[in-house]
Amino acid sequence: MNNVKKKLDQGLAFITCTIMGFMVLVAIWQVFTRYVLNSPSTISEELLRYSLIWVSMLGAAYAFGNKKHIAIEFIVEKLSPKKALRMSILIEILVVLFAVIVMVVGGIMTVNITMAQSSASLGIPMGYIYLSLPVSGILVIGYSVINIYEAIIKRKVELYSKEMDGESVTQLHG
């Protein structure tokens, strides 16, 4: 499962870096056309805005998957390891529910509603812009499943290690 997460991280990092590089080029083009050619590009502002939406949503999914998001840890830190594990799994399940209902289902509904609407400068369907919401939701769900799996496996390994330590102590003294 760690390999899947690693590949997902690498793919998201590549995509977001590519979009950011594209945004830099578009911003340079916008400045060049505005101040050198005295004829501002009509599409660059929209391209930047929509690229920022996509990179933000993908970046948010990446941050969530790697637990780099804002979190209130002081509650979990006060719990026993067993209760902390349960709490973290419960939080991941709640995140999955939110991602399914709001991001995926709500996002798909929004995409369907806005597919007929075109952007002002680019003329592309607005549904493609809003598609970032369900895509990000699916990524968040995937990361949550991986996080739950890793938490359970980690706990099993810790319990097994404690059992093995107990047996070795018993064998040494028995």
Describe this protein's structure.
The chain is mostly helical. The protein has one domain (2-173). Helix content is 81%, strand content 0%. It has helices at residues 2-36, 44-65, 74-77, 81-114, 127-130, 132-173. The two termini are 39 Å apart.
Compact overview of the structure:
Helix content is 81%, strand content 0%.
Key phrases:
174 residues, mainly alpha, 6 helices, 81% helix
Radius of gyration: 23 Å
Oligomer: single chain
Q: What percentage of residues falls in helices of 4 or more residues? A: over 70%
> What is the general shape?
elongated
Q: Tell me about the largest β-sheet.
A: none
Low-confidence stretches: 168-174
Number of strands: 0
What's the pLDDT, averaged over the residues? 88
Structural class: mainly alpha
What proportion of the residues form beta strands (DSSP E)? Answer: under 5%
Order of H and E elements: HHHHHH
Can you count the helices? Answer: 6
Q: How many structural domains are formed by the residues?
A: 1
- The N- to C-terminal Cα distance equals 39 Å
InterPro entries: DctQ, TRAP_DctQ
Protein name: TRAP-type C4-dicarboxylate transport system, small permease component
Subcellular location: Cell inner membrane
Domain Tripartite ATP-independent periplasmic transporters DctQ component: 23-152
